Prior knowledge:
The protein is an alpha+beta fold. Helices cover 25% and strands 34% of the residues.
Amino acid sequence: MKLGNLLWSAAAAILLALPAYLFIAASNNDTQSAPLRTAAAYYKSAYAHDHKKAYRLIAHRDRLVKSEQVYIQEKGPFTGFTLTVAAKLAELIEIRQTNAADNQATSKVKFAIKLPDANSLAPLLLDWDQDKLNALAAPKQKEILAAIDNLRRDGKLKFIEGEEELTLVKENGLWRVLFDWAAGLRVHYDATVPENKTIAATPLNRETSVRANELFTIAYRVRNLTQEAVATRIVHRVEPAELRQHLDLIECALLLPVKLKPGEDREFSSTYMVRGDLPDGSKQVKVTYDFQVEK
């Protein structure tokens, strides 16, 4: 599974749209340490793409809006050596709180953050191609981990610095991360296919809710219904049309023709981001993939 330089660049541009592990050195008697520890645990899991753990740290009201299955599918989990590398980079992230968190049930926490530029490591990490990374022999994997250590020790590892804010809410005495997806944009997915029944295409999830500057992934299962090889690509439609310019397509596997073998069944995904300039009052949008086929 290839994450791609474009996706890493987009994440860097909005700094924490692709969540990162926040390492926080806080005193146990610091009243702010409890909510910040929750934030750290969430970002640690999210950066490593261990989204099952991350989901448990999200507020209950958000989990009522978006299921664990949808959340994990949208973010894309890491496994194997790719997960090991992501966790290693996570350990290098530094954070400094820049405001005083209040003691209310809901608290906005601001901090300055410094995190490794994952995109700059793409040449070392096979362009973040998960299949290739996980297939490496153990000696090669150790070599890559040592190279990261050397870059850090020599001061050559690139970092990104910026500011971020999280909203945390206390539930049953425990702090949880609140995204307030219920107040976000509802995205509905659909697909149209040729009338000659050459292929079948179905979105893995029919809808989701997202907030501005949040990366999310749409996945479709596509099947060749014929006994001949075919090539398919999509025309991307957004309704209402006036919202199209506010939904950025970051990466799409189907913009160029993709060949399917006779009877082949495959999954394809596209990554989007809702821009921060979404007009007030925008509540929902429909994304339709119009599949076109050529033999």
